[in-house]
Amino acid sequence: MTEDQRQKLLQELLEKHKAGKLTPAQRYKIPQQNMPEQDPVTRRSNVNEVATGYTETQARLEALRCLQCKNAPCVQGCPVRIRIRDFVIAIAEGRYKEALSIIRENSLLPAVCGRVCPQENQCQLTCTVGKKFKDPTKAVSIGRLERFVADLNQNAEATPAVAAETGKKVAIIGAGPGGIVAAADTRRAGHDVTLFEAFHKPGGVMVFGIPEFRLPKAIVQKEINTLTKMGVKIVCNFIVGKTRTIQQLLADDGFDAAYIGVGAGLPNFMGIEGESLVGVYSANEYLTRANLMKAYDYGCGSDTPIALSKKVAVVGGGNVAMDSARTAVRLGAEKVYLVYRRTEKEMPARIEEVHHAKQEGIEFHILQSPKRIIGDQNSHVIAVECLKYKLGEPDDSGRRRPVPIEGSEFVIELDTVIIAIGNKPNPLISQTMPELKITKWGTIVVDEHTMATSVPGVYAGGDIVSGAATVILAMGQGRIAAAAINESLSKK
Amino acid sequence: MSHKIVSKKQLSQDVFTAEIEAPLIAQARQPGQFVIISINNEYAERIPLTIADADPEKGTIRLIWQRVGKTTAELSDLQVGDKIANVAGPLGNPTHLEKFGTVVCVGGGIGNAPLLPIAKALKDKGNKIISILGARNKELLILEKEFAGTSDELILTTDDGSYGRKALVTEPLKEICQRSPKPDQVFAIGPAIMMKFCCEVTKQFDIPTQVSLNTIMIDGTGMCGGCRIEYDGQPKFVCVDGPEFDGHKVNFDLMMKRLNAYKHLEQKEHEKYKKHKCKIGLDK
Known about the structure:
Oligomer: heterodimer
Strand order of the largest sheet of chain A: 3-2-1-4-16
Radius of gyration of chain B: 18 Å
Largest sheet of chain B: 7 strands, antiparallel
């Protein structure tokens, strides 16, 4: 459909809509608007954002697909309960400022969440339109609409109002999505807020992990700037548990409450032979080198090198695996294999990411998993020996368990292996805080209504509590914790 | 917060030391720990450097480094009053200190720097300290005076015989291990190859040997796993599990390969940096 055809269709539909005559059956017939994207061949050699965003016409057409269900099941599907139905109709009717302020009631980072939320497992999973087509990817494209309206107003937002100073001090540990939200919410209540970050730049997984082509760093920086304008102090290179402990912050440095949002930063390895060979990376290392440290500019400014790979295998099936594989393509790899021990159906990655990865030429090797990594006499990776798998009975996660097929070994020749099989919780804080209750997996135990930990005045949220989860869940928990902190400090 | 260089000295042709403002780290740091620094915020690489000493009252830490690549060369070109953008730490676990009895401290080249605070702390615990310091030549032997003040016995070696005994550190180490009674504990810090051969010697005499490893790191907090080594057949992270390990269980050969992973790329960058300097004449 050309832009002219879309405009014409939009005019017709809007007239009917205004007259209250647009029936659900007619709405179902509106074609779902595809996200405009950079050409797959072109984008293989740049780091610019792949999805370029809806035009206004597309956004309004897409918004008109919404049935405005009375019970708004989409809202129930959203971890932070954004009034989705209301912001979608506002977009359809061209009330963009209002749409954005509706989103902002519940989410501080719409430009981020519109891009990286797994909508097909959340709001779009419960959407009636998606149910009608028996496919959440055919639901109203809520994420794309959220992004559209967030991007439109990029320069027009006012800094959120801050209440009168309370004189209470709050320490937020970890400047990722949860920490950013907790910092903003506690600052809005008038507290003196310091955001501590271990890296030299704030943003957490949004700057070291998620690549530029999926989430431009400028968007994250804008949110950080908003925090600074609100008066949140940001201290980088500060490793809580090492530079100062939480006990010191609370007892000696005058903080009245602390929020731990440090993420799950300890990469899992498989425990197979050859995992420490030269050319084997954790996804964290590979992505951090490429994103935060800008290794793609090595030799043209950046001082952080990265393997100049020709053939790469990425092990895993999540978003991080897709990000790693697609980063390897952009760094010049000729062949990139994605090795996953279950099938595509069980992959935890977003469908869109899988689709993009395939478009960019990444070869999927499903029902396979490395048995050992093979090196040459210089301990450089030259191959990986894999086993084939079949699916057995469902396991605890509800997914069918992969079972190795004996004697099915085969060898893939390559020069780089990236392990993207998740993270364990980082022990730096719990090690220095024996009174903090943790689970046998190392995650912090909290009261889920307040995110309060076993230590008075100390709250926690995000991946250090849930294991590996999403940006939006971390934000949701940061918000719950901030509300509890504000409530508790108001009584002090 | 940036970190001002308050004093700087060249210890040998390629070895430098500087005191750097870092009040919180100076307070928190214990022997054996390190920092991660980067010179600027945009493009600079993050590198780990051991904290050689600290003055909590002055709020400074002392770093010692060897000019081997572009980043350490840039660091060497900074002057008193200049600032280092990022200094994060103290990282890693502190040295396990106790009264062992007789402790041999073996330092090689730049390794003398991290070894010194450990030797001092061991001395304070009441240990008898025998120090063996080695270098390629006289010019590269650093911190002799400081070790002399801390050691009950001090042995110096150079590869070329230009100072002290003409030998590798393993030679006097072996002799000391043969003494009766044999030493109770060895600390060896220096180039990987030196630590490897020290461990081979002490293993024959069954003397526990701690080594301090300086692998490639990015974050230093366990997040990237780039620093991992093979320890007793299992992967361990130098940043959160170390930096000190039982040297008899470390796979040094693999560690050395990993240390050299980017050498070919880095040499090119270092050459480029040196050339660039000459062109604009700032090095004059």
